[in-house]
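Appendix C reproduces, verbatim, an entry submitted by the partner laboratory led by Prof. M.T., so that reviewers can inspect both the input and the predicted structure.
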Amino acid sequence: MNVRAWFKSGSPWVWLNAAAVSASILMVVGLLALIAARGLGHFWPHPVVAFTYHEGPDQSRRIIGEIQDDEELPASRLREAGYWLPDGTGERITRYLVKVGNRDVYGADFFSAASSNMGPWEYPRGIFVAERWEWGNFYGFLRQVKEAGHVVAEGDGAWTVLQERLSRVRELHDAIRRLEKDEIGAINYRMERLRLKERGYELDGELTPARKAEIEMERARLQREYETVQARLQTLYRDIRRDSFTAEVMTGQVVEIPLATVVRAYRPNAMGPFEKVGHYLAKLWEFVSEEPREANTEGGVFPAIFGTVMMVLIMSVFVTPMGIVAAVYLREYAKQGPLTRVIRISVNNLAGVPSIVYGVFGLGFFVYFLGGNIDRLFFPEALPSPTFGTPGILWASLTLALLTLPVVIVSTEEGLSRIPKSLREGSLALGATKAETLWRVVLPMASPALMTGLILAVARAAGEVAPLMLVGVVKLAPALPLDGNFPFLHLERKFMHLGFHIYDVGFQSPNVEAARPLVYATALLLVLVIVVLNLTAIQIRNRLREKYRSLET
């Protein structure tokens, strides 16, 4: 076969298409591998290195920290940046980014070191890392453990005592958080509801002396309950502030750190393989189950996971019936003519509208117009503080429902068009009405196509960020949209989102170097959340397809 015949056969285009698909798969896999390596590697306990760094001919200091990154640069570029380099330095130098922590002592978390100025690296087993609620990591050598200012352990036995005291502090911290978020939060919520009830009676002119006395009695009861819980909370705060430790930092200075500010402490240079794996798994679990801390650069992302999944579920509840009704009307009821074709083209074009435009529309229509009117009609006692007239998860879900509606409409229409006409005619011949035929025959058989549209809608909605910035997403939500207070699901509340969390940590963080690994980790988590949501929908679609396959044949 000559070349011309080979081209006419179409084989080159088949191979070219296969090569393009293979290259795309390799690029996607490579990107995910890079994200996974950069993100998941952050939780591994890296060794802490100590070395002497020379900043001038007669100027040096001791550095302790973790090697976070390195890059090879020309020596001339480093000199231009202000680095002192010793004589005889080569043309290219490796610059290391060292995480030295102790921000409250040095004022910065990271230190850039040229390899030509670094002395021999040492890995002292006595160096420990203390993760803190604020001020980042602490690096140093443990000297003493104190209780109420009195030394209770020092020397070799101090580490064991420190771990025991840390376990106690963690239990106290969990108890404090339960009191503050659950009990005090519930009391404050009931106090606010009571205030709104009183205000409602006042606006309606129904605040009789009897009702006012009843409200005052309930308020007094809640106040007594609050004071009881507050007394318990003060006792816990006094207990948690009891212990502290002293440690020597890299400058030789000895500082005292309250144990109440420490999340965990570990000695990475002295850890065995199993201890490192245990530490790694504990950090991973913390990442997916805890709240963020340190301006979202430490801790977990559970509120963002919860907000992302809940927003997608609420959006699915709205977009599915709207998409089905619109598709059924266009395919089954609307007269097929120029007007219907224009509507169908308009629906298709809506898919290309920039997402930020939907955000502006959602802010103007849902938040200000619809939410504002809801507040005036149903929540006048709360005004001027808005209830629904402010961005929240409900308006974010509705905005994304509009954004993804064209995809669901088009997919459902395609599914309806593939249903054989003979099935419709057979149902009508047996005496069923057109509505019964649609409900019992056509829509069930078109459900796999509907699920396909929902899968595409979920994939797009879960990754959108721009419109959410206008209609409900925030950097840090004070409470989840779902809790134990009536009515349990609070659709008016603001929420956190994994996509916005990536933007905030990567571009708005005050400590970019510390936040960079979490950007990769959160991006990987967002991909996994989307994959899980899509796989769930695909599984449902496949079951529906198998269920109605026999009817199609």
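The chain is about 60% helix and 15% strand. Additional entries are available on request from the coordinating office.
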